[in-house]
What does this fold into?
Amino acid sequence: MRAIHAGAISVIRDGAHSGTVNMQRDLDLLLAAEKGIAGCRVYSWEVPCVSVGRFQSIDRGLIDPNAISWVRRPSGGKAVLHGWDVTVGLAVPLAELPVSTPRHLEPIYRSTVRPIVAALRACGVDAILAADSPYRGSGVHSGDCFAYASPNDVVEATTGAKLCGCALRLTQTAVLVQASIPAANPEIDPESVIVGAKATPVAPWESSSFADALEAALAQGWSHP
It folds into this structure.
């Protein structure tokens, strides 16, 4: 594990771990943020694994819970198939964010996701928040995180394809964002694992440079949503 300080945030290149370890380390980031310490980690997965939202029904999210390793995230949202993605855990004290209304979900979400958008753009992806495009509210609701793009999701500016599965956990004093960015086509068909999933091709991008690009984006501080 290697920590690099980007402004007030320590960005960690954390390698590959099991689903249980990954979720615990993201939760540890949130607990630290509640004590006033922002943190970020970029990581991967030892084996293919599905993470499901904190309140998501396993029976409604997974076709067969016994067919693949799965773990419950500390954040909300729907199921995500991991193993071929770049994953981010980012936790920030609410006092650090440029939001006028404490605990107002949308500006908090937009503020914390914007560095991820900037990092993707630096890696050659034409990323944009869905709310700033014609594609807000596109897709279908299902057990699959990538099947629907909410206004706060990150999409490709031209096609509207969802680029990043994001989930959020908001406490009284801090926020945790967990983001999954596909970096290669999965070797397991998502349709065989997640209820309502739809396999989509992954456009090539400079995923190996993402951690550096995210570090640079975080060093710029928080912009107004």
About this structure: The helical segments are 19-34, 58-61, 105-122, 210-219. The domain at 2-219 is CATH 3.30.930.10 (BirA Bifunctional Protein; domain 2). The CA atoms of residues 7 and 220 lie 8 Å apart.
